[in-house]
Fold this protein.
Amino acid sequence: MINFVLYEDGKEMRERYKKIILKLIGANNNNFKIIEIDKYDQEAEKKLNNIDGNKIYLLDVEVPGKSGLDLARQIRNNGDWSSQIIVITSHEQYSNIGYTSKLLMLDFISKYSDIEKELRETLGVAVGIFTKQKSITFTLNGELYQIPYNQILYIEKSLNNNNCKIVTNDGEYFTRDTIQHLEETLSNDQRFMKTHRSCIVNLSNVSSVDLANNIIFFPNKQIDLIARNKKRELKERL
């Protein structure tokens, strides 16, 4: 799922952005959402914190409550470096003062430029970044999910059935795939290791390991699923 977050107080501009997105993605594509925010308040903050999946932000510099640049800083300060950020502004001088490199912004676009052409091209790059990454893709309750490998912390088998839970920093996703099927899917990627009959771990996202207590630590999360016969391999691969 790709979420396009339109952080813009002008309704006319939001409608232009939506038309550009629909032309690029296709109106019949169900694997995206468009989220509109016209000011920063508690409701907007809640909406931003509850977005699951890949995110492409279109940020206007002047939005009531919090500028687009301040929101970009907040996104990065919260540890989200994978979302794509595009700033659209009527203040062209912002593009020359280092914001792009410091906050890993994909582009600055002037509202006085050929915005449809420039935004379409930049959005194409942003979408390509997500769609070209290796991902686990599955459908649940009629909705298509696409989770990039690099966002996965671990995959855990459910206790009461053969389904699995895929855990990322952004949330948890449930799939009907078995742990055996997912192990086969990920078998050619050296980042992943089955540390327990019920768990597959993305080693590149491991912060530390406590082998004495069988605990694997990730940023803001931990699990205690290390089989005795997997400890040596886990230590060597880390």
Q: What stands out?
A: The radius of gyration is 20 Å.
